[in-house]
Design a protein that fits this description.
By secondary structure, this protein is mostly helical. 49% of the residues lie in helices and 9% in strands.
Length: 82
C-alpha cells in the first residue's frame, strides 16, 4: 500500500513538458464541450418545459431557468431569465 502511494506521489512530482500539459488541457476542454453538448441534446430530446411548467433542473426548461430551486427545494417552475 505504501509503495503504491509513494509511486503516485512521485508521479505527481515529476515535471511535465509543455506539449504534454497542452495535450491534457485540450483533452479536458474537449470533454467539457462534449458534456455540455450532451446536456443540451438531453434537454431537447423530450421537449422542453414552457413558462410555468414544473421542473426539477434548469435544462428541463426552454428558457434554461427553473425558478424556485433554492434552499434545498427540488421543485420549481420554468421562468424567463429577464
Amino acid at each position: 500500500m505504501n509503495n503504491q502511494f509513494d509511486g503516485f506521489t512521485n508521479s505527481l512530482a515529476q515535471s511535465v513538458t509543455r506539449r504534454a500539459a497542452l495535450k491534457k488541457f485540450g483533452v479536458g476542454l474537449a470533454g467539457i464541450v462534449l458534456v455540455a453538448f450532451g446536456l443540451k441534446q438531453k434537454s431537447y430530446a423530450g421537449g422542453c418545459g414552457k413558462l410555468g411548467a414544473p421542473c426539477k433542473v434548469h435544462f428541463e426548461c426552454c428558457s434554461g431557468y427553473c425558478e424556485g430551486l433554492f434552499l434545498g427545494s427540488r421543485r420549481g417552475r420554468c421562468a424567463s431569465l429577464s
